[in-house]
Amino acid sequence: MKLAEQVIAGDRLALARMLSLVENDTPQGRSELDELFPHTGRAHLVGITGAPGTGKSSLVNQLAYAFRHPIDGSSPLRVAVIAVDPSSPFSGGALLGDRVRMRDLVGDPGVFIRSMASRGALGGLARNTAAVAQVFDAAGFEIILIETVGAGQGEVDIARLAHTTIVVEAPGLGDDIQAIKAGILEIADILVINKADRPGVEQTERALRAMLELAKPERIVMHHGRLAVLSYQEEENEAARVWKPFIMKTIALRGEGVQELAQAVREHGEHLRRNGEWQRRELERLDAELQGLVQAELVARWRERVPEETYQSILQQVIKRTISPYQAVVKLLEK
Amino acid sequence: MKLAEQVIAGDRLALARMLSLVENDTPQGRSELDELFPHTGRAHLVGITGAPGTGKSSLVNQLAYAFRHPIDGSSPLRVAVIAVDPSSPFSGGALLGDRVRMRDLVGDPGVFIRSMASRGALGGLARNTAAVAQVFDAAGFEIILIETVGAGQGEVDIARLAHTTIVVEAPGLGDDIQAIKAGILEIADILVINKADRPGVEQTERALRAMLELAKPERIVMHHGRLAVLSYQEEENEAARVWKPFIMKTIALRGEGVQELAQAVREHGEHLRRNGEWQRRELERLDAELQGLVQAELVARWRERVPEETYQSILQQVIKRTISPYQAVVKLLEK
Fold first, then answer.
1. Burial class (CB in 10 A: 0-12, 13-18, 19+), B224
2. Are strands A220-223 and A226-229 parallel, antiparallel or unpaired?
3. Per the CB < 8 Å rule, is A173 touching B53?
4. Closest CA to A204 of A164, A244, A243, A177
């Protein structure tokens, strides 16, 4: 049986091997992924993001557990966790300390956890994460939790990858953290204040609420990857399909509020499916992925065409200020 | 007189206009930049980075003041500040609250401050920042302070752009912030603990010191943009030109420790010039810039070749799972 077929049949060893092939972007990985791709499109991708110190990893672990053991009578879902760790861009080493807390999930065949180290460019990481998510999707995992550290562009890339984006905050992480929140809030479908037993929780909630008001998500929609402001007519038609981000409180270490969060994630998925938003996010996601792949391939092909010594000699002319970088580009693309 | 000549002659209005042209990446901006480029290569680029809440912006303002008013008998230097704000990736709006604290610098012709909003991709932002820095360089600014928020890839891009990288920390910003520090520490030439009058400063210093030991920078060097571990023979030759990152404490709001920091930055610049490291960083910087420009141009030319409807129809096949993303790339590049 081919590797792709074994993955679809639910073989965990085949899955692990496939993930490695795909994560390292090998030619075999690419062709196996071609086989898997027709079987994708069913999983619910959930991005979980937030600054260090918010207890995000513990929350992800608890959330996985909640999807496996729902208390509201719904069926348990198969859960994959992709932990993306861009914390060490040079060393490429993922810090897996938090993963040891996952003993409740160990041995559960309905759970698969994969830690990805950041290798090189952020664009490459986003591409690899998309591919890894596709493997889990084809293997029948219904919920894929994608956890990332960091702030800024990384979050935007997740938002493009995920159907549902959870932004995690915690009380007492510094006062002018607001600067960064403004951007992150715009991509949040659900805002979580974790460590909600800590002092300062009311203050954090007030601040988040104020920013949510400011963001006025009901007048702004994504359109071809850009934000668009709606006219008042469009606004009325839009109102039915707009999801208003809200705030939930959790104490991940004690599991408090986590079942409710899992429920909210499921509701968001249903909301997206009900009004066509699921398809729209799917389109934007695959569009972004396709553009990224084209870009990577264009660069790879160009590198094959232009000999290294040609590149180096033109770079030397730039360093000597004989030609400008733009003039160098023109020369390099003439070749 | 041409715009580029006016900029070189020190005309502030021409400078402001040039910055806008270059920041928006207009064709005129590109050709003016070609004119300016031979006049670049003298400025000392200093990257200042750190998480929100570290008081980084106040420190940048104080540092600019310290370079303008040195107390060690050295001459005042002309200072440009580039505030890169990727906090709001969608709205593109820069939060300039901190800039109002800069009243000490207002009216000083030896200072120029430019805030850049993040527009679209992070790669694009890095390219624009490089171009803006070149304009300031050609205009005769001797110190260019580049301030960024965020964590992860953004910092690495600054390290490539800057001769000197300052990483700013502050006491009490959460406990597992360490995860992110590991990566950032590797790019730091100088580590600053700001808000050093706050409780917990000894703890922060101990943690940073422990991580510096772990990083063992004396055995690891940058080689063609990658980290390389030295053999023991190489190590001896290397020892003379290795800069050991160290920790400084500041209280930016009261200006404490800032003159010393400015001095340390100047010393780092002299160190780089003394042992050829300046040229090496210059090479890596222009190499990264050139590669980024080539990539952007390849994509732009490809977009011109492939009609939008062709792209959309292939994307639709991917969405219907008729073909995989990789198969789509092959089709798109055949055109």
1. exposed
2. antiparallel
3. yes
4. A177
**Best interface-test mutation with B: which of A175, A176, A333 has the largest number of B CBs within 10 A?**
A176
The single-letter DSSP state of residue B256 is: B
- Inform me whether the pLDDT recorded for A224 exceeds 80: no
Contact residues, B window 139-198, toward A, CB-based 8 Å cutoff: 149-156, 170, 172-183, 186-187
In degrees rounded to 5, what are phi and psi of residue B260? Answer: -65, -40
Nearest to A298 among B153, B182, B299 (CB): B299
Please report the DSSP string for A16-43 in residue order. HHHHHHHHTT-HHHHHHHHHHGGG-S--
The distance between the two most distant Cα atoms of chain B, rounded to a whole number of Å, is 72
Confidence category of residue B232, pLDDT binned at 50, 70, 90: low
Strand segments, DSSP code E, in A127-270 are: 143-148, 164-169, 190-193, 220-223, 226-229, 246-249
Alpha-carbon distance A182 to nearest alpha carbon in chain B (angstroms): 6
Look at residues B170, B123, B132, B5 and name the one whose alpha carbon lies nearest to residue A122.
B123
Contact A173 B173 (CB under 8 A): yes
The single-letter code of the amino acid at A245 is: P
Classify B329 as helix, strand or coil. helix
Long-range interactions of B12-15: CB distance < 8 A, separation 24+ = B12/B109, B12/B112, B15/B112, B15/B135, B15/B139
Interface test with A, best of B101, B118, B122 (most A CBs within 10 A): B122
Q: Is the pLDDT of residue A154 over 80?
A: no
- Residue B247: name the closest of B189, B309, B315, B183 by CA: B189
On whether the CB atoms of residues A189 and A73 are closer than 8 A, the answer is no
Q: Do A327 and B34 touch (CB under 8 A)?
A: yes
**What is the per-residue pLDDT for B218?**
45
Chain B residue with Cα closest to A97: B179
Residue B94 C-alpha, separation from nearest chain A C-alpha, in angstroms: 9
Residue B183 to residue A151, Cβ atoms within 8 A: no
Question: Which of 77-136 (B) contact A at CB < 8 A?
Answer: 85-91, 93, 95, 97, 118, 121-123
Q: Tokens 């996010």 sit at which residue?
A: A281
| Domains observed in chain A | 40-275 (3.40.50.300), 278-335 (no CATH)
pTM (2 d.p.) = 0.75
CB distance B277 to B221 below 8 Å? no
> CB distance from A239 to chain B under 8 Å?
no
Q: Which two tokens stand for residue A256?
A: 């408090």
User: Which tens digits make up the pLDDT trace of B158-207?
Assistant: 667 899 999 888 887 654 444 445 556 677 899 999 999 998 899 888 88
Do the chains contact at B150 and A150, CB–CB below 8 Å?
yes
